[in-house]
Amino acid sequence: MMKNIAIVGAGLSGASAARVLRDEGYDGRLWILGEETHRPYDRPSLSKSVLSGADEMPPELAEPTWYDDNQVELVSGTKVSAFDLRGRKLELASGWSIDVDGVLLATGARARRLDVPGSQLDGVHYLRTMDDSLAMRTSLKPGMSVVIVGGGLIGCEVASTARKLGAEVTILETADELLLRVMGPMVGAGCRGLLEAMGVRVLLGAKAASFLGTSRVEAVMTQANERVSADLVLVSIGAEPDVTLAAAAGLACERGIVVDGAGLTSVSGVFAAGDAAAWPLRGGGRRSFETYLNAQAQSATAARAMLGCVAREPQVPLSWTEIAGRRMQMIGDLAGPGTVVVRGDPSAGSHTVFRIDGDRVAAAVSVDAARDFVAARRLVEMAAMVSADALRDVNTDLRGLTRATRGA
Amino acid sequence: MAFVRVCSEDEVAPGEALRTESAAGPVALFNVDGEFFAIEDTCSHGQWSLSDGYLTGDQIECTLHMAKFCVRTGKACSLPATKAVKVFPVQRQGCDVLIDFEDGHFAA
């Protein structure tokens, strides 16, 4: 039985795991060690309501009194500089050390850096933390030119927010469509249409070659030698699991800390969850999921496993976003083998796109169709056998299907 | 005490929900295996209707960001929600289901 558990990382994973540990009756010492100076907060709003100023601050992940009430020792603004696996000791940059018998590494992911001439100029931003969001919010002004390098989820979310604030927004995306990895070409094209209708300029197949300016960024040069004026640049070209501590300690890492379906790393007593972890996928392989809901589920699974309740749970990516005022939810990878089936009329707004692989529902993306998504999600989770015609027919009761259908 | 008839019990099947407007705002009525519970319909996190959600046992999962609430107590059971929603007293009279919309409160 563990008596001294430290959670390294105070994001969603760390905070969720602490909550589950206490809810499940763990009564030993419990630390959350966070590098940021803030109490754990919710990140999805950083690209939306916090950036726009609609919310002053992101919501906190627990009431401020929760930590004391539950004997959780939250240590903020602290970097863990080393993890001695053999001695079961965490060394903090402040000079402290903590003796532990269980560790959950929830160190998250960092924004992938773009290393081109001029990338150190003022006005070039990244977005992962509250401080990043507040710094961008201070600079964002109506009428200014904003260039977003990378048309993935964060890029498209920020484009929506900045455009609504009255900025002139250009997205540079190297691929031939926005949001390809997460949404597939069809929904990606739909989002591009919505963003363009808002007045966002989208350049596909466009790579940032350099940033121009003397001290502050003034423009972005593309590889095709197009000069795009920029008062502010956001680089949103993906994230990389933060494995610095884990790799230095000697844990197996492979684009994330390698864990099994219960979150256990290559060393007993040491677990990882959330964006830092390369977690098994239900369909095989493993990766960092970079989603809110998977981070939450992984942390709960890992926390229970730390208490001896081990259930291996490979996962299916599950996520949501808000782009150009549309609420979208997705499960599984829409880009993959099989057939794409559309339910509803994309041009009318509300619709759901499914991918069927063989005869099983493998992935779904809903646009302004939260009610359908509840069922779509279950169908994907069950890998249900449903015909393309049934999915396509808007008269099919999807909820009924989830009750009637049994997956493999 | 002002219980108001909302529906008859066979209008809300087990596992299903009914959204109803009231002076206290929208209220969601849930049928958990024949037992009825009423809570505020608006998710305390994302301003979304809980009655659209997915009921598993006595937990309702919001369709928007998948926060979960206990329909018996209104308590938040899963992030991103951290704040409870109010519960409303429910009564059965014969086949009718009644809610006291004036007594919405946070469970102890």
Structure description:
- The complex is a heterodimer of chains A (408) and B (108).
- By secondary structure, chain A is an alpha/beta fold.
- Chain A folds into three domains: 4-35 and 42-108 and 239-306, FAD/NAD(P)-binding domain; 113-235, FAD/NAD(P)-binding domain; 336-407, Enolase-like, domain 1 (2-Layer Sandwich), CATH 3.30.390.30.
- Chain A is built from eleven helices and 26 strands.
- Chain A has a five-stranded parallel sheet with strand order 3-2-1-7-19. Chain A has a five-stranded parallel sheet with strand order 9-16-10-11-12, with helices on one face.
- In chain A, strand 14 (219-222) and strand 15 form a beta hairpin.
- Chain A is globular.
- With 108 residues, chain B is mainly beta.
- Chain B has a single domain, classed as 3-layer Sandwich (Rieske Iron-sulfur Protein), CATH 2.102.10.
- Chain B has a four-stranded antiparallel sheet with strand order 2-3-4-9, with no helix packed on it.
- In chain B, a hairpin with a 2-residue loop joins strand 3 and strand 4 (35-40).
- Chain B is globular and about 40 Å long.
- The mean pLDDT of chain B is 92.
- The A-B interface holds A 12, 15-16, 19, 42, 44, 59-63, 292-293, 296, 318, 320, 327, 329, 370-371, 373-374, 378 and B 45, 48, 52-54, 61, 63-66, 78-80, 82.
Shape of chain A: globular
Low-confidence segments of chain B, given as residue ranges, are none
N-end to C-end Cα span of chain B: 19 Å
Number of extended strands of chain B: 11
Characterize the biggest β-sheet of chain A: 5 strands, parallel
Task: Record the strand order, biggest sheet of chain A.
Answer: 3-2-1-7-19
Count helical runs of chain B: 0
* CATH fold-type name of chain B: Rieske Iron-sulfur Protein
Largest sheet of chain B: 4 strands, antiparallel
Q: The CATH topology of the largest domain in chain A is what?
A: FAD/NAD(P)-binding domain
User: Given the C-alpha coordinates, what overall shape of chain B results?
Assistant: globular
Would you tell me the structural class of the helices and strands of chain B? mainly beta
Helix segment tally of chain A: 11
Q: Which homologous superfamily in CATH is the superfamily of the largest domain in chain A? A: FAD/NAD(P)-binding domain
Q: How many distinct domains of chain B?
A: 1
Summarize the amount of helix of chain A as a percent range. Answer: 25-40%
